[in-house]
Structure formats: structure tokens, C-alpha cells
């Protein structure tokens, strides 16, 4: 009995040698070493071009408005499924990848496999098989009273939010003096199995006339106002207090004189969360362009003071008492076209990443000595762009001895200087990935660098073969042994470049060993 208890305790802490999690961690550790070793290269194995946006999710590339799905895991990308071209009424507005949580017991075998939840222009919510595109579930949200447009996670892989576009009256109705009080609709679902939690209105009469946007994240209803004000409410408390009646998908219901089936056409979903009074306010703050983030330990938030002159200045404050942390004002004093940006590190370490044109700072929160109530912002490590060959002298002397003075200085993000464009975190390999670009004339060159997430040490640099134009929109994904670059050119032309890990042929023997 003692041995069994000891074994179960070790297994609960992840020490059981035969546990799948232990094997997974060991495999990822080996993969990280292989990715970062000198003999490993990344080769461009596939390129495609499209007239419609290209999306990427966990080893799958989606083309033609999600009608074509390509697996990027094989040695050469291959088509998983190709559906007939859809009509404009079937156009997909947004999509989320849904994956089964470990240890869950689910009603259907198909629930254990990855699926794609998509939202169509006609307010249909579909759950598709990620491997075949087969429709697994189909829910009708609402009629013409609102247009649902956006999908997001409240809690990743647990609670999903479907948000409508902002309701706007036709011009004739506005001229007639008709007032529009309902601005947004939110429909909230538990996923796997898909179940309806409720639908609510965001009404000006409850939340005020200045509301510009709304969202739900981690159980918090976030309401943004035109003057930069951000207000937070407890969504669970709202749901419990104002839900008039619970409804189950597929069941018959009688609501406001209508009889139908929940989630079926033409009735859709009832708006069963009726907020009749302003909910208790959890927190409010004012920030430039409503930019507001919460994270760290203990809890802190990041804002920019609500004045244009403070653009690029970030304040890190305690959520408990709104006190500004010591060294809590972060300002890189950049002179650049594109602003620097800051966010809480997605590795759940509580650290903060601050990215400028030529500098990346990873900051940490720590207690102030002799004052446990105050927090200090300290530098954990920095990553600096390679600008050794950059000369930006204001005064130069020609060969004849003439002194020439420049009338202007280069911007910090001038294309001719190496500039950071993208920073991403690969959670499986615990690597921080950065994309730096240098463009001289029309020829731009980019490289993806992999850094140790703990100390910032450069472990690997991967050059991208295609030219990089800094005036285009770019996305770069580093996913274990895959690098994927999506580029959007003018006139809605999209390109996708796929790189896969290979061993240098001159060192094949060393790799096999």
C-alpha cells in the first residue's frame, strides 16, 4: 500500500516514467536540441499564391475561405480536403480551432479529434472535422436582427464567444430620429460538447452612450468607451443574476410568443440574458485607444496615459491598488514610423515583453527590498538588433576634405537598418522567436532567430529565402520543426512559404548518430 501511494504521488507530480506527458517532454527536449544544432537547416519545401486570405492553425493551411485545407506536417504539404467553391451567402467570416482537452469524457468519438468552428455570413455556426471538412454540428444563431462576425475564446478550448458587428440604423431611420439602443449581441457557448450558455445585448441604456466595443475574456466582460475608458464586469455574476431561462441546443422552446427549436432555423437562439440594471463595476481605467492588458504575478495591468503625446509610453500598475510599480514607466523614446509594443509574456511566467525597432526587453516583476507591498520592474534580459555596420553620422568629410552636414537623421525603424518586426513564443520548445528585417532598395532580407526563453541567448538563426517588402503585411509562424511565412501584397494577393527542418547533407552522418 505504501509503494502504491508513493507511485501515485510521483505520478501526480509528473514523475511516473511511463506517463505519456514524461515521454512527450523528453521528445520535445530532443527536438529542441535538433532544431538548434548547427547542422540543422530549414528548407523552403513549398510555396503557394492565392487571391484570398491564407490562414494557418496547428499544422494546417487554409485557402479559399477555408474551402481547401493543406497539411504542412508531411515532407511535402498535401491536400487534406478540397470543398466546392462556396457562394457569397456561405462565406466564412471567422474560425477557431477546437481541440479536445486531456482527460475529458465526451459523448461522441468525433469530439476527440480536432475540429474547426466557423461562422458564416448568414449567422450559421458550424463545427467541421479538421481532417475532412465534414459538418459535425450546425447551429443557427439569429435572424436579420443582427449580423454575427467574430469568434473568440473566453477561456481557451472551454468557453467560446460569438460577437455581432455593431448595430447601425439605416440612414433613413437615423434621419427620422429613430434611436438605436442595442449596440452588440454576444452569444456564449461551452465547447466539447457544444452547449449554449446564453445570449445578451449590450445596450446604451445600461452601459452608456459612449460604448464603442465589447468583449469577454477569462470570465470578465470588457466594455470600451470612446474617451479611452475601459470598464470590467464579472460575466459569471451577470449570467447568474440576469439569465431569465436556460436553454439546451436542439430542444423545443417557447419564447416571447414564438415556438421553435433552440439553434435551428428560423428561430435561432433566444436572447435569454436580459441585463436590466448596470452590473457592479469590478475595475475601470482610462488608456489611449483603450489599450489595456492584465497579467503578471501579483496581478498588474499595462496602460498608456490617455493623451496622444504619451503614445509609446507604458505604465505598469498594480491591479490591487492602482499603484505605479517602481520603474513602472517604460519608454524606449523611439523615433519611428511604427510604434513599439508591449505585452505580458505568454509563457505564464508573469514577465513582460517590450519590443522596439532595435531592442527587445524582457522584464520581470519582483518585490522591492524592505517593502513587500510594492513591486519593482527589473530587466531580465535584452535582445539587440545587429546594427554594427550602420553609420548614421550627422557630419561626414568627403575625399576632397569638404565637410557635409546631414539635414536629417535616420528613423529608428529605417528599412536600411536591421529592425525587429515580429516576436513570437514557441511554447512546446520554450523558445523565443524574433524576425528581423533589413531592406536596401527593393531587396529586403529577413531572418528568424531562436533565443533561449530563460536567458535570451541566441541559439539559431534561420534566413528566409524570399524577399521581404516592409510595406507589405506579414505573418510568421514557428511551430516546432516548421516555419511558415504568409505575405499580403497589394490588390489582395497572398503568398505562403513553408520551411521544414532538414539536416545538412554534408553532416548527415553526424545527425543520424
From TrEMBL:
Pfam families in UniProt: DCAF17 (PF15802)
Annotated GO biological process: protein ubiquitination
PANTHER family, per the entry: DDB1- AND CUL4-ASSOCIATED FACTOR 17
GO cellular component: Cul4-RING E3 ubiquitin ligase complex
Protein name, per record: DDB1-and CUL4-associated factor 17
Membrane-spanning parts: none
